[in-house]
Amino acid sequence: MFAYVLRRIALAIPVLIGVLFLTFLLNRLIPGDPCRAILGEKATDQVCDAFIKRYGLDQPIPTQFGLYMSRVVTGDLGDSMRFGRPVTEMLTERLPVTIELALTSLFIATLFGMILGVMAAYWQNSPIDVVTMIFANLGVSIPIFVLGLLAAYLFGVVLKDTPLALPPSGRIQAGVRILPIAEAWGMGGLSGAPRTLLDFLSQMYLINGLLTFNLKLAGDAARHMILPAIVLATVPMSVIARMTRSSLLEVMNLDYMRTARAKGLDERTVVFRHAMRNALLPVVTIVGLSLGGLLSGAILTETIFGLTGVGKTLFEAISSRDYAVIQGFTLVIAFTYVVVNLLVDISYGFLDPRIRLG
Fold first, then answer.
1. What is the pTM of this model?
2. Which of 82, 116, 174, 333 has the most CB atoms in a 10 Å sphere around its CB?
């Protein structure tokens, strides 16, 4: 197992470099001038000449990439051309929003998707099965921007001033106190990587509220997260439900399942003890791919509900040709996919002992 993990990590390094190089190359081959895209009317010829020299855009692309990689290995992702801020600073601010939204959405999608899939398989060809699959097909078919706008209108406008009302945008209500975790724990003098990690977690308001026992912050953050998380979870939940149903039905027709029934086991024990574990392998793959996709940023969901996360930031960076932000965020997204796929592969060995990863 250890040798397998090391081998996958070694293979991931050229993948990350390749993704970064392709992104680097495509950014510079797209027609247009980053100076004029960022500065607009202020972009005179003299200003753009200075801008190009400042960011080294007048050098050959291989030279630019080599200089960029020399900074990346030291942890320096460069500065945003548009905001003049370090990209690592922007990641620390905006990645927690996406992580909090992605994990909440994935929890909802996995929990309800698997429940619906098991119900549909257990009562195959019954009204429950038909209704569940109709619901799953609707979840895949309705565009996110339509569902998000309808949900925001329903719970933020129609149901306003009722117990069912939910905030249609933002992360927390104005005036709610946010205290950094390090300060709440009396570790204000902490520095280095531990302080950076605590500051990163502090940007996840739900976790911040729980760790600092600020129930008002945790409750308000949870209320603001309900609508975007449910809207974002609809597509993966529908896919997980359909995959769970088909995988479970396939396993339930195998020989060892008939043997379990012949031994006198009731159907519930047969399904949950014998069938479910083997049926989970394709479901885990779908969950892993969904997590990678959610962590790469949900542009429409973040835009509709006013969340400044990875997706919205990356979209704005592409629109303004902010090379450093595009490359830095793309590197983090690629790394996320590599880690998630590695964890999915490792989980196979625990779910099915016949699989050997060594």
1. 0.83
2. 116
